[in-house]
Amino acid sequence: MGMVGRCKPAIPLKFGNEMDWNYSGKVVLVTGATSGMGKAVAEAFARAGANVVLSGRDEARGKALEEQLPNSIFIPGDVSAPHTNAQLVEAALSRFGGLDVISLNAGVLGIGSAVDAPLEVWEQTLNTNLSAIFYIAKYAMPELSKNPGTSMVINASIAAFKSFPNHPAYCASKAGAVALAKQLALDYGPAVRVNAICPGPVDTPLLWESAAAFPDPKTAVEKAGKATLMKRLGTPEDVAKLTLFLASDQASWMTGSAVTLDGGILNK
Ligand SMILES: NC(=O)c1ccc[n+]([C@@H]2O[C@H](COP(=O)([O-])OP(=O)(O)OC[C@H]3O[C@@H](n4cnc5c(N)ncnc54)[C@H](OP(=O)(O)O)[C@@H]3O)[C@@H](O)[C@H]2O)c1
């Protein structure tokens, strides 16, 4: 992989008026970039001029996104394995010459009660949703700590604060993700800011996977949207906007925060 100048201007893409961020010359690593919120986050950072390292397991979707986004590279791999996280950091350094922002979105549901869920489901859910954050921090913090204004944004969930039937692994992993965000903020501030986003129901494949447990998944998804104070599901772009804000200097006094982004559903 050849080195690319960090200030190389991105090819301008057409997009709406929702964002006015300038990440030109910044290097951003996005996990879960092959679907849902991570994909929207990667697209938003690319539109704002960033060089983007894309992570996911699905090579077809990852390569397609790499082709779509200027100054991006897709690195396939399972983030529940420590070495994948080392490779992602290494790719940012070798391809783009640095690392400024990490947006962590890789996640699985791991549905099943304590009795019913196989041990492998518990382990894979905890490893993907929680341990992977620890792994990337292990490899990335030395690099992030070198530059002022760097940051990590962890996509957790309102499941960190609220139980859902048959989601013990998911809820425990998300509560752990929020605790880990706070801990990393403590250990690596002021050099690196670390914040968590806690979304409510967002219209992505993961939400539909969760709804599949209901007799009528479509009705269950519609109900989830109507249950919010704003009477709609979140969109991946809602999460992308908050991610770009939290990673920017506009949020320079925010660290160790867990920000709910849920249409007010936790407030009912
Ligand atoms: N949707 C919601 O209502 C909701 C609400 C709150 C929080 N969240 C959280 O938001 C994050 C994004 O979820 P989403 O709703 O956008 O779901 P999604 O569309 O299913 O996307 C999940 C992403 O995680 C990646 N991923 C899963 N396991 C992986 C692994 N072992 N290694 C590497 N990548 C892996 C998937 O990529 P590959 O398939 O290519 O591996 C995919 O890109 C998750 O952490 C989720 O828990 C979702």
Please write the CATH class name of the largest domain. Alpha Beta
- Give the CA-CA distance, first to last residue: 51 Å
- What structural category do the secondary elements indicate? alpha/beta
Helix content: 40-55%
What's the gyration radius in Å? 18 Å
Count of helices? 8
Strand order of the largest sheet: 3-2-1-4-5-6-7
State the total count of DSSP E strands: 7
Largest sheet: 7 strands, parallel
List the domain count as a whole number: 2
The ordered H/E elements are EHEHEHEHEHEHHHE
Low-confidence stretches: 1-18
Name the assembly state: single chain
How much beta, percentage-wise?
5-15%
The whole-number mean of residue pLDDT values reads 93
**CATH fold-level label of the largest domain:** Rossmann fold
> What best-fitting shape do the alpha-carbon axes yield?
globular
CATH superfamily of the largest domain: NAD(P)-binding Rossmann-like Domain
Return the CATH architecture of the largest domain. 3-Layer(aba) Sandwich
Bound molecule types: NADP nicotinamide-adenine-dinucleotide phosphate
